[in-house]
Amino acid sequence: MKPPPFEYDDPRRLDEALALLAEHGAEAKVLAGGQSLVPLLNFRLARPRRLIDVNGLGELDYLRFENGTLRIGALTRQAALERSSETAQRVPLLTRAVRFVGHPQIRNRGTVGGSVAHADPAAELPAALSALDARYRLRTRSGERVVASEELFLAARTTALAPDELLVEVEVDVPGPATGSAFVEFSRRYGGAALAGAAVLVTLDGSGACERARIGLLAAGPTPVRAREAEVWLRGATIDAATAAEAGARAAAGVTPPGDIHGSSDYRRALVETMVTRALLEAVARA
Amino acid sequence: MPRKEDLPHLTGTARFVGDVELPGMLHARIVRSPLAHARISSIGTGEALAQPGVAAVLTADDLPPATPPIPTRMFSQPGLERFLQQPLARDTVRYSGEPVAVVVAASRYVAEDAAELVELELEPLEPVLAVERALEPEAPVLHEEAGTNVAGSFVVEHGDIDAAFAAAALVVEERLAVQRHAAVPLEPRGLVANLDESGVVTVLGAAKIPHVNRRILAQLLGWPEARVRLVELHVGGGFGARGEFYPEDFLVPYCAVRLGRPVSWIEDRAEHLRACNHSREQVHELALALDGNGRFLGLRDRLLNDSGAYVRTHGLVVPGMGAALLPGPYRWPAYRCEVSHVVTCKTPAGTYRSPGRYEANFARERLIDVAAHRLGLDPVELRRRNLVPPTGMPYASGTNTDGHPVVYDSGDYPLLLEKACRRFDWDGLRRWRHERPGDGRRRGLGLAFFVEKSGIARWEYARVELSGSGAATVYSGSASMGQGVETVLAQVCADALGVAFEDVTVVHGDTASIPDGMGAFGSRAATLGGSAVHLAAESLRTRVREQGAPAPGETLSADARFESEDMTFPYGVHVAAVEVDVETGRVDIHRYGVAYDVGRALNPTLVEGQIVGGVAQGVGGALLEELVYDERGQLLSASFVDYLLPTAVEVPPVDVLITEDAPTPRNPLGAKGAGEGGAAAAGAAVANAVADALGVEVTRLPLSPERVVALAGGRT
Questions:
Q1: Which residue, of A11, A186, B372, B614, is most buried by count of CB atoms within 10 Å of its CB?
Q2: Strands (E), B291-380
C-alpha cells in the first residue's frame, strides 16, 4: 500500500505549473485534493513518473458570481462549494449534488476541478455540471480553450484534456426564474459510489407547464450524460407522477449502465428510471 | 465507571503494533499468488534481491525442509492434516493471495517495489470455486494426496429422524445460504519480531491467544517454548479472525531470526481482505417436520461449509458449532445434521463472531417463519409452542461439540420471549407494519430466537498480587481485543479482594510474565478469565485474613486455574422492523431490539457495547458485506470501495434489554459470555423482516438491493 517511486513538483504559480506540464505532461499526473489519485497510487493502479502538485496555486481557489455566471476555480474545495450560501441560493443544484460526494473529510480535501478532471462516471459534480450546461476552461502555457461537458468527458476516467492542459475554471450560468432543481442518487451505503443518480433542472412557463427540463445522469454509462430525448419529450408537458414516470422510462431506455458486483446493468437501468422520476417530481415542486 | 482502556485510547498513548519502531528494523512484504489455482514452475528472486535496500527474498525452498504446516488447535479430526497450509506455498497455489515469497527490506517502500520484481512462473489449473463444483466426482482435487475435496465430515444426531418426518403433518424444506464475508477488524494484523542476545525471539503484535501461538511458533521453528515470547500490545478488534496463527506468524519471526534484525510486517487493508480468514459461507439444506398442532417433530440438515483452500487453526469448529447449536432454544424429538467441510480455491475460512451460529440461526429461524406462513400461525406463537420450558433445565440438546455433549445450563426462554415482545412493543410494531407507508414502500417485522454458547476451551489462569501499598495487580491469561477485558477483570478483582477498582492494574498478553493462558475468544474472557481472577483474589483474601496484609515493600500473591465443567449458554431474541423501498431495493431498519440473558452482567455498559457492536456486524452481513469472486477466482470485493462495511448511517439505533434471569451454575460469577449474541441472530431477524415485508421467502443473504427488487417481483 505504498506508491511506486515518482518525481514531485509543487509549483506556487499557475504559469509555473503550466510550464511543468508543457515539459512533463505526458508522464505526469496533476495532484489536487488527492482523494482519488492517492489511493490509485497506493494500490499501484496509477504509476505516473511525476506528480505536479497544484495545491500551492491559491489563485485557482475561488468561487464568485459575475453577471449571472458562477465561476469556480479548479482548486476550490468541495467543502467550500458546499458551504457557499450564495451558491445554495442561486445554483442550489450544485449544493445538493456536492453533499453526496463521499464524506465531509473527503470534501474538505477534494476539489471541484479534481472531480471534473478525474471523470469518474459515477461522480456527482460532473453530472450536475452537465445538467447545468457548464463550460470548462482549459489552459496551456500558450493559450486556453473553453469546452462543454460533451466535449470534455470522453470515456470513463478519460477527458479531452491534453497532456499539457490544466483545467483552471468551471463556469455555470445561474438558472433563470421559475426553475427548480433536484439531485437524487442511490448508493448501497451512505457516501458510497452511486449505482444511479439524476441531476435535474425544471423551468416552468407561465401556465405551469414544463418550458425546459435538463436531466444529467450519473453512473448511467461511461461518461455523465444528458437524457436529451426525455428532456425534449417533457417540453410543454405538465410534470406529474405519470409524465415524470414516462420521462424516467425514456431516460432509462437511452442508457446502458455498466454492471458490476453491486448491481447488474438491467437493475441499474431500472434505477435510472426511478431516480429521474423522483428527481423530476422533486424539482417541479421547487420550480 | 470509566473503562481502564479509555485513557490510553482517548489520549492516543495506546501503543499498537504499527507504532513500534526498533533500531535497525527491517520491513517485510509478502509476495502472494495472483492466481487462484496453479502449479508453481519457478520463482525468480534475483532481480528483487539485487535492489538496494533488500535484505532477503525467501521462498519455500529457503525455509527449513522440516518446517511443518500450520496445525489445527481445536476441533480436529483424523485426515484434516492433509489440508493444512504451509507458511509458503511449495508446489501448488490454491487461492489468489496465497503467500509464495517474502521480501525483507530497509523500508516498506523498497519492500513493495522489490516484491513486484519477484518473477512467478505459474502454470494455471482450473480454479474450483463453488462447494457444489468441488463435490463433483470429476472436479479437480485441490490436495492431490488427500484424494478428495471434503476435508472433514461428521454427523450430529439424536432420535429417529426418519420416523419424525414420516409422522409429520407438514414438512417445510429450503436451501438456505449465507454469503462469504469476514470479520474485518478496524486494525489490520501486524507483527514485529526480534531475536535478542539470549536467543529468545520476541514477537510484538500477538493477539487473542498468545500462549497458544507461542506453542505453535515454537513447534514450527523447532525451538523450545522458553525461547519464544509473544507480547500483546493494544489491539484494534479481533472478532475471531485476528490472532489466529497465520503464515505470517511464522514468516516474520523466522525472518527476524534468520537475519538477526528486527522485522516488521504491517498488513494493509487490501492484503487483509485476501489473507486473513474469511467466514460464513455455508449452505443449509434444511427440513423441518411438524405435527398438526405446530409442534416440532424433527429437524434435518445437510450443511456444506466452504473452507477455502486450506484447513486453518480452527479445524472444524465453524460447522461443528453450527451443527451443535442449530437446534436453538427448541425441543426436537429428532435431529440430524450431516456436515461436510469442503475445500475451494478461495481464501481459507475460519471463525467470525458467532461462528456457525450466525448461519445456523439464519437457516433455522427463517425456516420456522416459512412453516408459520404455511400453517397460518403467528411466527411468535409457533416459537412459543416449541421452546424448551424452564423446568427442562439443565437441558441436554442431544447434540455435541467435538464429541462433548451440549447441555444448556440454565434459562427461561418463554420469559425472555415475553419480555422482548413487551420491551420492543411487538404489538405496536404490528400496528406500524399495517399502516400504509408511501408508494412503493412495504413494512415487515422479523423475530429470531437463539441460544449462544460461551467459554469454549474450558479453563483460564490468573494470578493476583497485593503490594504493601494496597495496590493489586492481576496477571491474566486472557487477552484484550479492545473489548474492555482490563476493566472487567479489575472489577472482579476489586470485588473479591475488597480493594478499590482504581487500585487494580491488569497485566495480560505477555508470555514472559504470565505462565499460561487460553486467551480471548468465543465469549470467554469475562466468564472464564473473570472466574480465574475471582478464585485467585478470593484465595489471596483468605491469605491476607490469615497472615495479615503485606508490609510496605512486600508482596503477597495467589494464583488460580479455573476449570469449568462445561460451556455456558446465554440466549436471546432479536427483533427487526424494516421498511423496504421496492423500486430501489433499499432496506431501512426502522427499529432494532436485542434481548439477551447473560446470567449476570458484570459490567452492563460493556455488555451493551458488545451487543450493539455485534448488531452492526450482523446487519452488515445481512445487507451489505460480501466477498465476491469472479470465475477465475479473483476477489472482486478487494478493497473498502467494494467490500461494504456498514457505517453509522446503516447501523440502526439498537434497543438493548439485558436480563439476568438465568445465572449459570457453571462458574462462581454466574456470568455467561456476552460477546457474540449481538451478531448471532441479526441475519435471521433482518431476513425474516424483509420476507414479511415482501410476502416472499428469503433464502439467502445478503439482501442486496438488486436481490430485494427481484424478490419484490420488480422490474429486473
A1: B614
A2: 296-308, 334-343
